[in-house]
Amino acid sequence: MAKFDFESLKNDYYSLLKKISVRKGVNELNTYLEKHGLFKAPASTKYHLCTEGGLVFHSVNVAKLAIELKKILLTDISDESVILCALFHDCHKVTDGFSNTTYIKNESNDSEKQPYLWNKNQFSFSGAHKSLLIISHFVELTCDEMQAIAYHDGPYVQAWEDIASDPYPLTFLIHFADLWSTWVIEKGKDKIIFNKKFLEDSL
Ligand SMILES: [Fe+2]
């Protein structure tokens, strides 16, 4: 798993935030998320970046990659839209919007314990759609941004059927940046090339 320096991570987060802070409501959204533990939140209970700060590390990775992809694939959309969606697509992992923390530190003494537990006492709703609700409470979103946030999990989840006939380009961009960050960058696989030849040891 990729390691991160917490101070430089915070700097990266704030410099991305600064780029979109002219957008009405973004600073208030950030204040709300910080108040509810943005910098403490993990990205999962036991899989992906299940450690303090894991969520911000992941969100910054997705934003940085999405900006690079946008330069090639989606030049007409604003950096602001891309950063906003990428940085906050998983904000439901901080809180459910009803003052309930999403993940609770597992304090049990079990040696096999997973680092975090899913808080069962929270708003029962799809995670991605919870992110959309939280962001849109503070920031007025375009339809591209709404779809990209709500369907960033892409065809990996059943909800994709809702938009399967008309996914927007920003949705694919955020989905791919999320996928690549999670499975390649954050697993430290971006420097590994599997170039072994088929049956090369057969002679
Ligand atoms: Fe994500």
Task: Outline the structure in words.
The chain is mainly α. Helix content is 45%, strand content 3%. It contains seven helices and two strands; from the N terminus they run H-H-H-H-E-E-H-H-H. Helix 1 (6-20) packs across helix 4 (79-88). The longest helix is centred in the first third of the chain and has 20 residues, at 54-73. The model has no long low-confidence stretch (mean pLDDT 94). The site of fe (ii) ion has 5 residues, from helix 3. Fe (ii) ion binds at residues 58, 62, 89-90, 178.
List keywords for this structure.
203 residues, mainly alpha, two-stranded antiparallel sheet, 3% strand, globular, binds fe (ii) ion
The helical percent reads: 40-55%
Spell the H/E element sequence. HHHHEEHHH
- CA-based gyration radius: 18 Å
Largest sheet: 2 strands, antiparallel
Give a count of the beta strands, DSSP E runs of length 2 or more.
2
User: What is the SS-derived class?
Assistant: mainly alpha
**What best-fitting shape do the alpha-carbon axes yield?**
globular
Q: How many domains?
A: 1
Strand content: under 5%
Instruction: List each distinct ligand once.
Output: fe (ii) ion
List the quaternary state of the chains.
Answer: single chain
Overall mean pLDDT score? 94
Low-confidence region ranges: none
Strand order of the largest sheet: 1-2
- The total count of helices amounts to 7
What is the straight-line distance between the termini? 36 Å
Could you write a compact summary of the structure shown?
Helix content is 45%, strand content 3%.
